[in-house]
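Regression test case RT-17, inverse folding.

Input:
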């Protein structure tokens, strides 16, 4: 615990608790409110929402979390996990075109997309609404779209080390709240957040102890 910076009595009790309490308001994440509004609006207009994921444990569990909550909210979804060998990491314009041809009207990324500026422009020009959810460092020019990422410089969220699946789970929590769904709608997908969080080797501290 000391190695993880957990030294205060309250933090130790929280870390060892059967039911950790620490969880933050998902709407503290930048663009969360606007991103959830865009997606709920798309669902009410029966638009096909494509989830663009990643091929590792974090990316795949993120995709599962997002697909589950959007379908439980009444959405029609498609999803895409890029191939490590032929598509590569992150948004890929050729893949975006294929998804558009498959009928996608909205593109929501998980675990990627923060610095995919050109590909996001490509997607917007192809007529897609784009929401990026991600946790990677933004050390390049950030994409010009709704961008939900705790690593954003203007982020007011109290914890920055969420994995991609952690950000996807916060998005699910925000959808659940805003759509007035029962908490049970997200309770059984928390285990997916645990797998992706451990798989991505993010620090197991603070809110991630909750998973
Ligand atoms: Mn990740």
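Golden output:
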């Amino acid at each position: 615990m000391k190695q993880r910076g957990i030294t205060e009595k309250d933090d130790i009790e929280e870390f060892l608790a059967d039911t950790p309490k620490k969880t933050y308001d998902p709407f503290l994440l930048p663009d969360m409110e606007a991103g959830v509004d865009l997606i709920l609006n798309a669902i009410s207009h029966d638009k096909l929402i494509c989830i663009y994921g990643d091929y590792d444990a974090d990316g795949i569990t993120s995709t599962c979390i997002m697909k589950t909550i959007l379908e439980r909210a009444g959405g029609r979804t498609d999803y895409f996990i890029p191939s490590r060998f032929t598509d590569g990491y992150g948004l890929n314009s050729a893949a975006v075109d294929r998804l558009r041809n498959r009928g996608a009207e909205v593109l929501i990324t998980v675990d990627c997309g923060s610095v995919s500026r050109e590909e996001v422009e490509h997607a917007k020009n192809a007529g897609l609404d784009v929401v990026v959810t991600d946790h990677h460092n933004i050390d390049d020019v950030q994409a010009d779209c709704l961008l939900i990422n705790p690593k954003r410089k203007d982020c007011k969220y109290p914890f920055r080390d969420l994995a991609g699946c952690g950000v996807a789970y916060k998005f699910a929590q925000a959808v659940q709240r805003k759509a007035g769904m029962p908490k049970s709608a997200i309770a059984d997908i928390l285990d997916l957040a645990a797998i992706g969080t451990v798989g991505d080797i993010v620090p197991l501290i603070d809110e991630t102890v909750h998973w």
